[in-house]
Design a protein that fits this description.
- The protein is α/β, with parallel strands linked by helices and 235 residues long.
- The protein has 8 helices and 11 strands.
- The protein has 2 domains: 5-125, Response regulator (Rossmann fold, 3-Layer(aba) Sandwich), CATH 3.40.50; 159-232, Winged helix-like DNA-binding domain superfamily/Winged helix DNA-binding domain (Arc Repressor Mutant, subunit A, Orthogonal Bundle).
- The longest helix has 15 residues, at 111-125.
- One of its GO terms (cellular component) is protein-DNA complex.
- It holds the Pfam family Trans_reg_C.
């Protein structure tokens, strides 16, 4: 299946009209469909009504802050988020990423660089891996994964996975029982252009286990295969 930018809908959230219009113009030139919001309340309203594929989110927003918008979205979805802010301190960046953002761009920024980051994140997130059903129900409903909406539920309750964690989970689910090496998981989940280390997979796996396993120390879903990697077991 070949995908084009026209298939992806992006939500840009910023309280500065000029920034909104410029980002919108650059993204539309690349073929993306773009929706905009000027405050956190409007952003959440649009997200709940539309099928959004990626969000560019400013932190300094009226009504509801960008941090709270991110937390709200992360409580129900793993949709990719790029944080956009004037804050440049390292602590701010770490805080933003720890709350679930996938990338972080500081103002002032190059619009071409931002578009490039959007394309890279779209490519890593929506790469045409082995097709999955839109809704996966595992172990009589113990786990439910809505592949289309980036939603994971554990016994009916939403599980707050980050976008990267969700991508890894989907790769594992694409072939239950198959052992994926760390390198394979990196390439399939993030792409060969990912500049992280394959050992970061261990951290992501640990976090996923804490969220979906009954006992993360004795996992029944994501099982380690010593010296080889990880596999997903279904029941």
């Amino acid at each position: 299946m070949v995908t084009t930018n026209k298939e992806f809908k992006i939500l840009v959230v910023d309280d500065e009209e000029k920034i909104l219009s410029v980002i919108k113009a650059y993204l539309e030139k690349e073929g993306f469909e773009v929706l905009t919001a000027k405050d956190g309340e409007e952003a959440i309203d649009i997200f709940e009504k539309e099928h959004i594929h990626l969000i560019i989110l400013d932190l300094m927003l009226p009504k509801i802050s960008g941090e709270k918008v991110c937390a709200k979205i992360r409580s129900v979805s793993s949709v990719p988020i790029i944080m956009l802010t004037a804050k440049i301190e390292e602590d701010n960046k770490i805080e933003g990423l720890s709350m679930g953002a996938d990338d972080y761009v500081t103002k002032p920024f190059s619009n071409r660089e931002l578009v490039s980051r959007v394309k890279a994140l779209i490519r890593r997130t929506y790469r045409d891996n082995t097709p999955l059903a839109e809704l996966l129900i595992i172990n009589n409903g113990d786990l439910e994964i809505d592949v289309e909406k980036f939603i994971v539920k554990k016994r009916g309750e939403n599980v707050n996975l980050t976008s990267n964690e969700f991508k890894i989970l989907i790769v594992l689910l694409s072939k239950p029982g198959k052992v994926f090496s760390r390198e394979e998981l990196v390439n399939k989940a993030f792409g060969i252009d990912y500049d992280g280390f394959d050992r970061t997979i261990d951290t992501h796996i640990k976090n996923i286990r804490r969220k979906i396993e009954d006992d993360h120390r004795n996992p029944k879903y994501i099982v380690s295969v010593y010296g080889l990697g990880y596999k997903f077991i279904t029941y």
